[in-house]
Design a protein that fits this description.
Low-confidence stretches: 1-6
Radius of gyration: 12 Å
Structural class: mainly beta
Mean pLDDT: 75
Number of strands: 4
Order of helices and strands: EEEEH
Number of helices: 1
Shape: globular
Distance between the termini: 25 Å
Strand order of the largest sheet: 1-2-3-4
Helix content: 10-25%
């Protein structure tokens, strides 16, 4: 994340503001590519609790992806069906 840039994980996200292509090489891919869906951890954005920021990317459809504060938040969203 660029210096001076803030990100509110709980706010609605505009897909046009989410352009991870330049940052993907520095992330840790933690899932299989299943139908274009992948989970990535970004060790360069660390939350107050020490957890890395997580990205959910949908590479096949218009939704693009979302950024979440932690792996815990990613799993909450996944189990609540909020990633579709």
């Amino acid at each position: 994340m660029p210096a001076g840039c803030s990100f509110e994980c709980d706010a609605p996200q505009d897909p046009d503001d989410f352009e991870p292509a330049d940052r993907i090489p520095r992330t840790l891919h933690i899932s299989e590519d299943v139908e274009g869906h992948v989970y990535l951890l970004d060790p360069h954005v660390i939350a107050d609790g020490g957890e890395w920021e997580v990205w959910y990317l949908d590479t096949l459809y218009e939704s693009g992806g979302i950024r979440l504060r932690s792996f815990w938040n990613l799993m909450e969203h996944a189990f609540q069906g909020k990633l579709n």
